[in-house]
Amino acid sequence: MDFSTKPFDAKSNLASSKTACVVVGVYENKKLTAEAESLNKQGALSNALKSGDITGKAGSILVLRDVAGVAAERVVLVGLGVAPSAKSSGSIPNTTFTKIAQATASCLAGLCATDAMITLAVYGADLNAAIRSLVLAMRATAYRCDGLKSKPETTTTGVSKVTLLVQADHSARARTFLRNSVALANGIDLTRQLADLPGNICTPTYLANAAKKIASQFKSATNKLTAEILDKKQCQALKMGSFLSVTNGSDEPPKFIVLKYLGGKPKEAPVVLVGKGITFDSGGISLKAGLGMDEMKYDMGGAASVLGTMRAISELNLKLNVIAIIPSCENMPNGRATKPGDIVTSMSGQTIEILNTDAEGRLILCDALTYAERFKPAAVVDVATLTGACITSLGHHNSGLFTRHDEAHDALAEELLSAGTDTGDTAWRMPLGEAYNEQLKSNFADMANIGGSAAGSITAACFLERYTKQYTWAHLDIAGTAWKSGAAKGATGRPVALLTTFLINRAAV
Ligand code: BES
Ligand code: MN
Ligand code: ZN
User: Fold this and answer.
1) What pLDDT, in 10s, does the model give residues 316-368?
2) In this predicted model, what pLDDT tens digit does every residue of 47-83 receive, in sequence order?
3) In the chain, what are the domain boundaries?
4) Which fold would CATH assign to domain 185-508?
């Protein structure tokens, strides 16, 4: 999909613009935007409003063809909701604008038209957010994962060339916002593609190759991008006894992936992103129930989102050092698999009694978090489809955010939360603390890998916290947000927007 911006001012003549679709807005009180008004010289748009075919509610839509006096083949009328009061400086809140963008995208995707000119971006409260909403919505609608069907599904091709009209005096800013949005969309696409692949294709080796591919695609004059893949032997040498215990029952070789992006100053402390890369989670000997087990191919959603984020920031040439660490393996049962009651020694030296082999995410992450220490990170953020309990707590709306409760960590939490709010990729902060830590006591080892049935997402985060004492750290539990189940089953690409925006903001200061 090809996006561009075009400056627009009072002298521009929209009615004579030749395009397959011109997209204009109308408010709920039947008031047309200035651009819509300029196409209404012969009353076609007012007549459509009078007919009641479009209400003007946010996201309502009507396609008019062959409008007299308009060069475009179609006028797409989009409802913008309640006309904003002068108090909100006449602009539409971001959440409403996202709805408008999604409706526009699905309408344009269903038309047999190749190009469209969209005049809506200027009505968003924030030009950056408005452009991002439109680009992400259009790209998300165009996303397909039918590569493994013997014949691709027949759908309309939809609009593939999009011009966003922006105020002439904001056109330089708009170009930057567009560039950021397209890079973000490319990152989200990569994340979705990787996550949607089945476990027999997307193995740890496949993820390692995906990291190498990003490294070779996006090396540039201003950044160093290198992928280093540690195999089982190298992990043994590093004493990653916890990570390796999860791989025991699988024939698929584990990979410990390190992707370094050095776009900042050479000595600047990096941000480290750690992604859970379980390419299939059967539960191991603590086997999961059969129903819906296929969705455990998404247990590498954290890894996929970290790779998507690395792709996005590499394409943007961000001036920041960022290191991705992805411990990747399968969690399978066989005769050599780890058993409940087994005790392992993590890379940190702390011992773990594995009471449930299905609580494997924390077992691979703890060694990755210890490995992260060597980079003397400015901050570490781990991303994991860690607990079903997080879905119970927050549903599918918010990712769970966990950090310690002190000044430095409150600041990091605030950065991540606001990056989420700004992009609609929201997270919600959860507590950590001594009381929850009690639940991890073991009679035989330094800790157990489960904390009982209460507060499951919090005790999982408490477990991770024990491996992060050397740096500022946050944990994102994306069990409820990384993919959708049911008829719309598929990866969402979350939390790439949150992470990428967090890093863009860090690079700006
Ligand atoms: N990958 C799962 C968490 C998960 C489950 C994510 C369902 C999304 C949907 C994780 O490895 C797991 O199995 N966690 C257990 C932990 C329990 C044994 C303490 C869980 O949540 O049931
Ligand atoms: Mn599990
Ligand atoms: Zn898992």
Assistant:
1) 999 999 999 999 999 999 999 999 999 999 999 999 999 999 999 999 999 99
2) 999 999 999 999 999 999 999 999 999 999 999 999 9
3) 2-165, 185-508
4) Aminopeptidase (3.40.630)
- Sheet (strand 115-118) strand order: 2-8, 161-167, 115-118, 21-26, 74-79, 61-65
DSSP assignment of 67-100 equals -TT--SSEEEEEE--SPPPGGGTT-B-HHHHHHH
Q: DSSP label at 240?
A: -
Quote the strand ranges of 90-245, DSSP E.
Answer: 115-118, 161-167, 224-230
**The ligand 1 atom nearest the CA atom of 460:** 19
Whether cis (ω within 30° of 0) applies to the bond prior to 495 is yes
- State if residue 479 touches ligand 1 by the CB under 6 angstroms criterion: yes
Model pTM greater than 0.90?
A: yes
Among 25, 316, 315, 1, CA closest to 165: 25
The answer to whether the CB of 385 is under 6 A from ligand 1 is yes
List CB contacts of 314: < 8 A, sequence separation 6 or more: 214, 217, 218, 220, 223, 225, 261, 263
* Beta-strand pair 161-167/115-118: parallel
Q: Which CATH number fits domain 2-165: 3.40.50.720, 1.10.10.10, 1.20.1560.10, 3.40.220.10?
A: 3.40.220.10
Q: Which protein residue's CA is at the shortest distance from atom 8 of ligand 1?
A: 479
Q: Whose CA is nearest to atom 7 of ligand 1?
A: 388
Q: Which of 153, 136, 111 lies closest to 191 in space, CA to CA?
A: 136
Respond yes or no: is residue 362 known to be catalytic.
Answer: yes
Strands 399-403 and 115-118: unpaired
